[in-house]
Amino acid sequence: MKRIFVQIASYRDELLLPTIQSAISNAKHPNRLFFGICLQDERKAIATLKKIPHVSIHFLNYNKSEGVGWARAQAQKLYQGEEYVLQTDSHMQFEPNWDFNAIGMVNQCSGKSFLSQFCSEFNSIFEPTAIAAWGFDKLQYPHYLHVCQSGTHSKFISQHAFTCAHFIFGPGQLFQEVPIDPKIGYYYEENAMSLRTWTSGWNIYY
Q: How does strand 126-136 pair with strand 55-61?
C-alpha cells in the first residue's frame, strides 16, 4: 500500500483547510495520504486541522516565522517514511485521482526522477507544460517563462530543467537525498532546488 506524504508550509492562509480537503476528496486512495503542515498562524487555527486524520502539525506563531525555506524544512521533518512525497502550497486545488495519476506518471520516468511544474490558476483553460529560462537580471538571477497550451489536461510526461516549489512529487528518497535548505529565501529556492537535484543525479519531469 503506497503512501504519500504531503508537506505544506502555510503562513496565515485561509485556503489551507480547503487545500487539504481538496487533496483528500479528490484522491483515489485518501486513506494513504499523510500530511505534514508547518502552520505559521494564530493558535486557534490548530483546532480544525486536528480533526482531520493523518495530519501532523508543526506550529509557531506567525510573527516568529523564519522564512519559506525554514517553514518547508519544518514540514519536511514530519515525514515518516512514506513511499512518495508531495511538496505543495497552502492554496491549491486537486484534480480527481491525482494521487493515482501522479504515482503512475513518476513511475514512467527513467532513473531517479520526480515531477515538477508551474500549476495553472483555478478554473484556467491553460495547462502549464514547462518552465524555461529566457534571460537574467542584474544579479544574474534567471527569469522564467511558463510555456502553456490550451485544452484538456495531458498525462504525457517530458523532461525539463527547472523545479517549481508549489508542486514537487516524487519518491520519498528525493527529500532524503536533497532535503529542503532551511536558510534559503523565497527568491532563490527554486533555482537552488533545481541545481541541487540535478547535481544529485535526479531527473525533473513535467
A: unpaired
> Which residue, among 112, 89, 81, 58, has the nearest Cα to 186 in the 3D structure?
89
Q: Give dist(CA 10, CA 106) in Å, integer.
A: 26
Whose grid coordinates read 486524520?
Answer: 53
CA–CA separation, 43 and 81 (whole Å): 28
Contacts 24+ apart (CB under 8 A), 49-56: 49/16, 49/17, 49/20, 52/20, 52/24, 55/20
What's the pTM value of the predicted model, to 2 decimals?
0.87
Judge whether 58 and 75 are in contact, CB under 8 Å: yes
How far is it, in rounded angstroms, from Cα 104 to Cα 110? 13
3-state secondary structure of 200: coil
H, E, C per residue of 157-198: CCEECCCECCEEEEECHHHHHCCCCCCCCCCCHHHHHHHHHH
Query: Across the 206 residues of the chain, what is the mean pLDDT of every consecutive 10-residue run?
Result: 95 96 98 98 91 96 94 97 97 96 94 87 61 71 59 62 90 96 82 91 92
Q: What are phi and psi of 205, to 5 degrees?
A: -125, 155
